[in-house]
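Reopening this one. Same input as before:
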Amino acid sequence: MSMGRIDRERTTIEAMIRPYCRRHHDPQGDVLCPCCQELLEYAFGRTKACRFGEDKPACAKCAIHCYKPDMRTAIIEVMRWSGPRMLWCHPYLAIRHLFDSMKLYPRPSDGESGSRG
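Same output, byte for byte:
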C-alpha cells in the first residue's frame, strides 16, 4: 500500500525537522523544542490546506508560496541541513521527494494568489 502525496509530504517534513531539532536545539527525548514543534504543526497545516491536494508540487517548485516569511525562512534552513542527510537516514523518502521535485505541475491561472496564514 503506497502513501498519498500529502501523507508522504508530511512524513518527509517530520523526518527533516526531528533530526534538525535534535542536532541544533538539544530537546529532551523524542520531544521537539517549542520552535520546531510550531514549525512542524505549521507545515502540516499548510500541507493540509494546499489548493493542489494530492497533485501538490514540491513547495520549492510551487508558483504559490503560502508560508509566512518567517516560517518559510525556518523551513528552508531545516531543509538545507536535513536534505543531504535524508539520503542516508530515509533513502526512500529522499528519492521520492527528488522525483516529486522533478515533476511538472500546472501554474495557477492569472489572478490566483496563495493564501498566507
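So the earlier flakiness isn't reproducible anymore. For the record, The helical segments are 5-25, 34-48, 69-89, 91-102.
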